Amino acid sequence: MDGTSHTASGKTITITLDGTDRSVTLPIVDGTIGPSVADIRKLYNALGIFTFDPGYGATASCHSAITYIDGDEGVLLYRGYPIEQLAEHSTFLEVCYLLLNGELPKPDELSKFERGVMRHTMLHEQLRSFYNGFRRDAHPMAVMCGVVGAMSAFYNDGMNINDPNSRRISAFRLIAKMPTIAAWAHKYNAGQPFMYPRNDLGYAENFLYMFNAVPAETYKVNPILARAMDLILILHADHEQNASTSTVRLAGSTGANPFACIAAGIASLWGPAHGGANEAVLKMLSEIGHVREIPDFISKVKDKNSNVRLMGFGHRVYKNYDPRAKIMQRTCHEVLGELGIKDDPLLDLAMELEKIALDDPYFVERKLYPNVDFYSGIILKAMGFPTSMFTALFAVARTVGWISQWQEMMEDPEQRIGRPRQVYVGAPQRDYVPADKR
Ligand code: CMC
């Protein structure tokens, strides 16, 4: 194969197979912003070859109008709006409306949407008994995978995936019930009674209420912490075609119901390279233990044989500071201030680690910068969340992104079942060998 060459217009790409007269000219597709893509769908029929891209680092899997990331510049846009502006001026439910519908709501549209979502916060009472099936120390993500998947068995009226109204109701149910499911996973771990949702509270406020309150006492949610929670939810709401979102799309491409798809997304989010990183950051900080141990730890990270990574650093797309990490860092100081935590050893350790890593050629050369998870764990710990809840909170926030992307896929006329190909490297065809001849 002699590589590729662009035509004069720059709008096609021609690929010629070395040693043959076979070539194919493929269209280049432009997005609104960001890199163009070569549409390779005709490649196999024309030349009999596939493309190879493990980890999909160079592959666009769909058209999407929801989220845009410029990883080199550290830009994140939801429906065109910079994350910094949404973090400053918006609320999580307004961001949900934006992600689902494409535009910011007018005031009456927002109140109708808020009422609509908050009317779905209760879980079917029968779903309560699912919790008793888990061990008391079950990880909240295990509980969430199970309970969200089980929603498929409870909300049959929203299962017609080809009906837009049905899809809308499922979206409302998932966004509304996820905080209840997550808060109850914690209550089950803690051996405390489940608190029913309160629809007179805001979304983040209600979550903090269900998480912290007990029936024996009156509980007032701290408005500064509710705002911080809301902000954390905004920052995690969507992130284009990441692993869990691609999992949701892949599951959805088969026609699976939305609850099953979101359960698949939760499973994919759980890993430490993705949503599980916030939990891993805190574990890492406590293992390091003290600022004086940082140089030793950094040497281990740089040692190729150690398999140790600096958790909360690096990103497949961002080769610059993750814009969400900057907002997180600010919020971290605000939350610690509000809680009267003057010297948090973990925060001191994190800041020192960040300073050292940002100066170290290993990280500089590889463009490894702090990501959203570097500070989120410290904030969540200060707010009283056990580490096992961190990824569950990420799942609560990302549900709107998953369901918006699922909806977009369902409305896409080009949508087909997701079915990658492979480079087969196993044995060629051979005959079965009877047991006594092996
Ligand atoms: N610590 C040390 N070295 C790293 C790290 C890290 N955190 N991340 C990447 N590298 C090195 C890696 O060893 C490789 O070096 P070399 O070129 O010498 O082999 C180079 O940087 C490129 O790494 P990669 O594995 O090809 O990068 P990737 O795009 O496949 O991985 C990542 C991205 C996020 C999985 C990875 O950076 C990582 O494991 N980070 C730590 C986990 C983490 O914080 N994840 C949260 C991501 S943000 C939230 C989310 O989206 O879920």
TrEMBL record:
Catalysed reaction equations from the record: oxaloacetate + acetyl-CoA + H2O = citrate + CoA + H(+)
Pathway(s) the chain acts in: Carbohydrate metabolism; tricarboxylic acid cycle; isocitrate from oxaloacetate: step 1/2
Keyword Transferase: yes
InterPro entries: Citrate_synth-like_lrg_a-sub, Citrate_synth-like_sm_a-sub, Citrate_synthase, Citrate_synthase_AS, Citrate_synthase_bac-typ, Citrate_synthase_sf, Citrate_synthase_typ-I
Keywords from the UniProt entry: Transferase, Tricarboxylic acid cycle
GO MF, one example: citrate synthase activity
GO biological process, one term: tricarboxylic acid cycle
One GO CC annotation: cytoplasm
CDD domains membership: EcCS_like
PROSITE patterns in the record: CITRATE_SYNTHASE
Catalytic residue list: H315, D373
UniProt entry tagged with the keyword rRNA-binding: no
Family the entry assigns: Belongs to the citrate synthase family.
PANTHER family: CITRATE SYNTHASE (PTHR42871)
Name of this chain's protein: Citrate synthase
Organism: Acidisphaera rubrifaciens HS-AP3
